[in-house]
Amino acid sequence: MVNEFEIKKQICDIGRRIYNRNMVAANDGNISVKLNDNEFLCTPTGVSKGFMTPEFICKVDAQGNVIQANPGFKPSSEIKMHMRVYQKRPDVGSVVHAHPIYATSFAIAGIPLTQPIMPEAVIALGCVPIAEYGTPSTMEIPDNLEKYLPYFDAVLLENHGALTWSTDLNAAYMKMESVEFYAQLLYQSKLLGGPKEFDKENIKKLYEIRRKFGMPGKHPANLCQNKDGVNCHNCGGACHNEEYKQFPGYQYDFVGGAAPAAETTTAAPAANADAELVANITKQVMAQLGLK
Ligand SMILES: [Zn+2]
Q1: How far is CA 221 from CA 14, 123, 161, 280, in A?
Q2: Among 56, 129, 161, 198, which residue carries the largest CB count within 10 Å?
Q3: pLDDT of the residue at 126
Q4: CA–CA dist 167, 176 (Å, integer)
């Protein structure tokens, strides 16, 4: 395991990236990393995340209470929303919160990122829903966030910003970059007359890539492929739960109600170009996600 001081340095590095990429203004944003079930490192409140050094970083327990903080530093006031993610998602090792311009604009306009417009966004994120507005630093944000946690790895926070989480710090940060890039593309293509969306068949192919590579995290592609809930190997039975059917991305997997074939059949010559394209895209996406 990487030592604690190294992780503190990594948090400072990611803080600088977030600040330098205009994903936060002034002292906004916060980052946390799980050390073990009862120890978490997090950024302090009231400092710019672009100018932190390791001694700024605080340590809290699973409830967000301070274990260690140097004089003058207090854990982020938003630590509660981070702790809710760790509590509900034991697979998560890091949480990143920022206010990137485009993603936050969508969060303010009340438009979730659900339009399937590019392969990487569909594979890496699926859809990014909006968690209902809550007053910062109260329990409203964690409470409103909770229902999205079992199904997604990124949400917009209504009239506020974005929150991403993943297995480790780098992956959680990369997810934030992906969300912002997706939001920016969506915004720009709307200016150009509206994006041309993938059809359901193409979305299914991209979801299939994600499943095939067993990519970590939660995503609409991980929802049960069996509409009738016969073999709930993907959702652990969640397909019986009406709640999850309301989430964006769900509908793409159920074209005509048929479950996708278990084995991919040999591609016909006409489909080869498609297959090659998807393979190339997948390679790039996997590299971007640091999976290979
Ligand atoms: Zn915020």
Answers
A1: 28, 8, 24, 20
A2: 161
A3: 84
A4: 13
